[in-house]
Design a protein that fits this description.
This protein has two helices and nine strands, in the order ββββββαβββα. With about 190 residues, the protein is mainly β. Strand 7 and strand 8 form a beta hairpin. The longest helix is centred in the middle third of the chain and has 12 residues.
């Protein structure tokens, strides 16, 4: 069966390339749009035997729009354009996974080429960040850490403290089998 893919389920993670050994990629928060546009120019030369085509290297445009925020990764994106910092970027499709529980992903390296910031008086501050992608993006599958998964789709938590031993704070997520359950609470 063919499944349609939803734009809302395609999200961008990023980090400074220099931090690859010490930091996991972070979700760019509050994304409103993500554009991934690989292209290849071609040229045709007419010959007496017919056209002979040549093609150039892959060029990839990557652009993310989001509501401006105070997340560290948002600040790093802005600073990267001033510092000409090499960035790691990964698009993860949360609605396409394999049997191992890994998500479809595109990994890229490149530089922030533009960071446009709009600050209208009657709206949220927004950012539109464009990247110049180096080389050819790599297609594959990736797992998300618990923290990354929680950033994408936070989990239910109870009222207790959230600790390493109890990541849900004493809470239990609702299951479909809970529909209709109505026991009297013990007082």
């Amino acid at each position: 069966m063919v499944k349609t893919l939803q734009g809302v389920k395609s999200v961008l993670f990023a980090r400074k390339h220099a931090d690859a050994a010490t930091k996991e990629m972070q979700l760019v928060p509050y994304q409103t749009s993500l554009t991934f546009d690989p292209s290849r120019d071609s040229d045709s030369t007419a010959t007496k035997d017919g056209a002979v085509n040549t093609s150039s290297s892959i060029e990839t445009d990557l652009e993310v729009e989001f509501i401006n925020n105070t997340a560290a990764v948002s600040d790093e994106l802005l600073q990267a354009i001033f510092d000409d910092e090499l960035m790691d970027m990964e698009i993860v499709r949360m609605d396409r996974s394999n049997a191992s529980g890994e998500y479809e992903a595109w990994y890229m390296q490149g530089h922030v080429s533009e960071d446009s910031n709009d600050n209208d008086a009657d709206d949220n501050s927004t950012r539109d960040v464009s990247f110049s992608v180096d080389g050819t993006p790599k297609h594959g599958w990736t797992k998300l850490t618990t923290a990354q998964q929680n950033d994408v789709d936070y989990v239910f938590r109870g009222l207790d403290a959230v600790t390493e031993e109890d990541a849900t704070g004493g809470g239990t997520a609702w299951k479909d089998t809970d529909n209709g359950v109505a026991e009297d609470p013990k007082v």
